[in-house]
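A favour, since you know our structure tokens better than I do. Would you make up a two-line entry for one protein for me to read? Write everything out right here, beneath this request.
=====
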Amino acid sequence: MITDYNRLSGLQKAAILFSVLGEGLALSLVKELSKTDIRKVRAAMRDLDSVSFLIKKRVMEEFYFSFVSEKFHDEDSDAPRKPFAFIEDITDEQLFALIKPEAASVAAIVLAQVPGERRMKIVERFDAMTRGEIIMEMGNLNDIPLEAVVSVATDLKKKSQLLPKTVAFSRGGGKDIAEILGGLNPEEEKLFLENISRENPELAEDIKKYHLTWDVLFEVLPDNIIRDLMNSVELDSIAMAMKGMPEDIVERVIGNLPQKKQAMYEPVEGAVSKREVENARKEIVASAKQMEKDGVFNLSDLVGGGDMVE
């Protein structure tokens, strides 16, 4: 077992780093390695004896301090590469919204990357208790290993991509958010709505008044509207859209089809692509939106408890 840190060569340290982080993540952080260097590291990994936890920890710490001191640079740029560079491209409100649901330790890691004046503006948005927790956590950041820092950066970068280009959700209304959501793909739309529901349940309810989604159709539309809606699209699209839906929803839809269509309806059997199902559902949602635009129903009234006349 390797227990003497001082006897490790640079190649051995790189091999330990790659074995701890995994080659994919390590290469994403150390992009300047040539193919020859990568082959040498792989060979060193194969030749490594077992490595003690303390040695792994020290190698990670050495790389961490090199990383945060901007030792590593992009191949095609003289600018230092930072794991939290993405926070420079979002506003204070977006950054606050991004870290508000996170643990105080995560918020502390992020805020440690922010210049002092901007940091204080964001910290002041938290309640007094949370502010205290974040400040205490910022005093313990030296104890956090590199893999935790990288993991936080990677996770929050993905979440930041779900933020709208503007931060209407922080002070605007549900109608503004509904317009933003309309331009997202189904997966982004779902994640974004889940995020808002966690952060601001009242706003999530307000959004429902203006944002028609596949699931909302069956939550709020009465049978007479469902009947007209399903009669406006092709039967094949209905069958594809029903793939994977709960039995009670399928029965409700079929029950609202004209008798001729009911007799002709055949469920889609076997495996189909997710895209086919999503496209069929998008077609039906688009028809519902057109019906609302034509004044057939008012989504806000339905979500708010208004009644439709059969």
User: Anything to note?
Assistant: The chain has four domains: 5-68, 85-160, 168-208, 214-303. The domain at 214-303 is CATH 1.10.220.30 (Annexin V; domain 1). Residues 68-80, 166-172, 305-310 have pLDDT under 50 and may be disordered.
